[in-house]
Specification:
Number of domains: 1
Largest sheet: none
Shape: elongated
Helix content: over 70%
Structural class: mainly alpha
Number of strands: 0
Distance between the termini: 19 Å
Strand content: under 5%
Number of helices: 4
Radius of gyration: 14 Å
């Protein structure tokens, strides 16, 4: 798994992270909406949980890659 993550270019991870964090651009990004639902305790439906995970996945992979590169050197 780590080899696969190590081969993903940072540029692609950054672009995907920004795009999915801001998508859809109107009226409100899904990540903001789902995090507000999580804060309010209304994030119950499986589709909403999946949607939050889907939009955060590139950011999680980017953070894993950054952590791995920092600890390896």
């Amino acid at each position: 798994m780590w080899r696969f993550i190590d081969r993903i270019p940072y540029t692609l991870l950054i672009i995907l992270s920004v795009f999915l964090l801001l998508a859809p651009f109107r009226p409100m990004p899904h990540v903001v909406e789902k995090l507000m639902m999580l804060k309010n305790g209304t994030l119950h439906r499986p589709i909403d949980i999946f949607d939050l995970f889907y939009h955060l996945t590139p950011l999680i992979v980017l953070l894993m890659r950054l952590y791995r590169d920092r600890t390896r050197n």
